[in-house]
Amino acid sequence: MKPTQNNFAYIDGANLHRGIIQLGWQLDYAKFRVWLKEKYGIAHAYLFIGLIPKNKDLYTNLQEAGFTLVYKEITYDGHGKVKGNCDADLVLKATRDSYEKSSGQALLVSSDGDYSGLVKFLLEKDKFIGIISPSVSAKCSVLLKRTGARIAYINDQKSILEVKKDGQNKKAPGRD
C-alpha cells in the first residue's frame, strides 16, 4: 500500500459515469476511492459533477465514500438534455492547486481531450502522475495520448472496482 502523499485526483464525473456505462459494468465508488488512495497516494479526490436536486442521495453516497464534490449548475439543451460542463472548473482547480502548491502530484480521471492543455502544463511543472481513462484505448482522446502522459484504463481494474452482484464474492461450498 502506498502512503497518502497529498496527491490530488481531479475527476470529470460525467465522463467517468458515461465511460463506465459504455464499458457495461457498474463502478463501486467506495472501492474506487480506496484504490485511488492505495495506488496513487490520493489525499483529496475532487469529483466535478452537475448539480441535479433529484440526485441528492447519490451525492451523499459519494461524499461518504470520501469524494469532495465540486458542483456545477446545470442547464438544459433544446431537447431537454442536461448540460453541466465541468471542464473549466476542473482545469481552474487543478491549476490553482498547482500554483498555490497545495497538492503534491495530480491525477486526472477522464478521457476528454479538452484536458490536454492542463496535462501538458502539469507535466511541465513535474506535478502530474497520469491519467485514468474511463474508456477503452480506442475511445480515449488522441489529444490526451499525444501529451505523452501515462494513461491507465479503468477497465483493467474491473475485477476489483466493479459492484459485485449477490453471491459473486462468496466461496463455493468446500472450496478455498
Would you kindly provide a written description of the structure presented here, covering whatever features stand out?
With 176 residues, the protein is an alpha/beta fold. The protein has a 6-stranded parallel β-sheet with strand order 3-2-1-6-7-8, sandwiched between helices. It is globular. 31% of the residues are buried. The C terminus is likely disordered.
State the fourth-level CATH superfamily.
Answer: 5'-nuclease
Number of domains: 1
What proportion of the residues is helical, as a percent range? 25-40%
Rounded mean pLDDT is 90
Termini separation: 25 Å
Percent of residues in β-strands = 15-25%
In DSSP terms, counting alpha (H) and pi (I) runs of 4 or more, how many helices? Answer: 7
Order of helix and strand elements from N to C terminus: EHHEHEEEHEHEHEH
Strand order of the largest sheet: 3-2-1-6-7-8
Tertiary shape: globular
Based on CA atoms alone, the radius of gyration comes out at: 17 Å
CATH architecture: 3-Layer(aba) Sandwich
Largest sheet report: 6 strands, parallel
CATH fold topology: Rossmann fold
